[in-house]
Amino acid sequence: MRKLLTILLLMISLSLWAVDSQPSDTLTSHELPNKEGWLKRTLRKFTEIDTNYVEPQHYNWALMVQGTYNYDIYRLSSSTDNKQTVTFAPAPSFKFGPYFGWRWIFLGYTIDLKSLKFSDGKREFDFSFYAAQLGVDLFYRRTGSDYRIRNVDLGQNINSDQLEDVKFDGLSVGITGFNAYYIFNHKRFSYPAAFNQSTMQKISCGSWMAGLGWMRNSLEFDYNKMQNLVSSRLGRPVSLDSGLMFNSVKYYNLNASVGYAYNWVFARHCLFCSSLSVALAYKNTRGETVDDDKTGFDFNNFNVDGIGRFGVVWNNNKWYAGASAIIRLYNYHTSRFAANNIFGNLNVYVGFNFGPRKRYK
Fold first, then answer.
1. 219 — phi, psi (to 5°)?
2. Which of 201, 311, 338, 342 is the most buried (most CB within 10 A)?
3. 53 phi/psi in degrees, rounded to 5
4. How much is the pTM?
5. Given the DSSP bridges, would you call strands 54-55 and 59-78 parallel, antiparallel or unpaired?
6. Segments of 154-291 assigned E as strands
7. CA–CA separation, 317 and 314 (whole Å)
8. Which of 353, 358, 347, 359 is nearest to 66 (CA)?
9. Is 318 buried (19+), middle (13-18) or exposed (0-12) by CB count in 10 A?
10. Cα angle value 178/184/189 (rounded, 5°)
11. Within 13 A of 256's CA, how many CA atoms are on the CB side?
């Protein structure tokens, strides 16, 4: 994964270096100087837009502050005759921090205001690259271990109300991955207008999208602690199904997606964006179980996932404010157990652009 991130960052850096000399939001290939190299001409095509529909960015730099609400829901269930299901979600948290942007790149770091410290086990890092045709999102999350049990179904008509909303620190999750997507109607539809404010959508428009993604999801589960908690709360011994008796699971997810996005300009400088994508994902799952032979399990299968992006923004090219949400749904189904994971974030931000480009000075 480190090599993959290094390659992606290097490609993005080279792309930015190649197109840095002059903004070229409305240039076409026949208008470019003949002496310009093929690489530079090719990369400039990624910034071509129809200025009747999209207003190009007038500034090189951006600074903003952002508040982020993160949410994670894990639903684990066994796939046996005595089906059992447990749903976990972390305690609500709100993070706040600065972001700094240059052209298409936004980097930032948020701090959990609840703990105001860096040693609580929670970490989040996001890297986004936006151009008219192409977008890349890199994400790194470590959720800590402050989950709560939201819902339990132990089967056999067992009343499990005593377990709901109980703190459980035996679950820890890590997520690392990326999504890359291509915008087909890129000259008239601007994805960056809704999600990094580097352009402004002037006329409502939509576009089909296609993408590729990869994710590694690691889950550490202390089934002994869960077993003891269940028996303690219910006041009698209750056994977990063997499908839920595992120590750790790692999911490797490779997906190809297709979707549609629409930008609705509902007032001057105001935009609402809705984007939905469905992904066919190949899953490789590895886990360690309680079995005496310690062989664990290894599954390979295909599932359907989903990604939704929504945003509302006010932007007058100098100042901007808005909110955006990203929701990711991943499903894992095997002969032993099933897992459904919903995670994402809700962002509220305000910022401004500075450092005018040469043509707008």
1. -130, 120
2. 201
3. -105, -35
4. 0.78
5. unpaired
6. 166-168, 171-183, 200-201, 205-221, 246-267, 270-289
7. 9
8. 347
9. exposed
10. 95
11. 1
Q: In 3D, which of 360, 227, 341, 223 has the Cα closest to residue 281?
A: 341
Per-residue pLDDT of the chain (361 residues; tens, 9 = 90+): 444 444 344 344 433 333 333 333 443 334 444 555 666 666 666 678 899 999 988 888 889 999 988 788 888 888 766 788 889 888 767 888 888 887 666 677 767 766 555 445 566 676 777 778 888 888 887 776 778 888 888 877 788 888 888 888 888 888 888 889 999 999 999 988 988 787 899 999 999 999 999 988 888 888 888 888 888 888 888 777 777 777 777 778 889 999 999 999 999 999 999 999 999 888 776 655 555 444 455 556 788 889 899 999 999 989 999 999 988 888 877 777 777 888 888 999 999 999 888 777 6
Give me the count of residues in the chain.
361
Residue 181: count other Cβ atoms within 10 Å of its Cβ.
23
Handedness of CA 94, 95, 100, 104 (dihedral sign): negative
- Residue 233: phi and psi, rounded to 5, are -70, -35
Tokens linked to 265: 């300009």
Residue type, 290: V
Q: How far apart (Å, rounded) are the C-alpha atoms in residues 1 and 123?
A: 17
**CA separation, residue 99 to residues 87, 141, 351 (Å):** 33, 17, 9
Residue 223 DSSP symbol: H
Torsion of CA 29, 357, 186, 140, to 10 degrees: 120
Alpha-carbon gap, residue 173 to 133, rounded angstroms = 33
Q: DSSP letters along 62-90, please?
A: EEEEEEEEEEEEEEEEE-SSS--EEEEEE
Place of tokens 């290894």: 298
The token pair that represents 283 in the structure block:
């899953």
Cα distances from 329 to residues 81, 133, 277, 326, in angstroms, run 26, 25, 10, 10
- The encoded tokens of residue 353 equal 């652009």
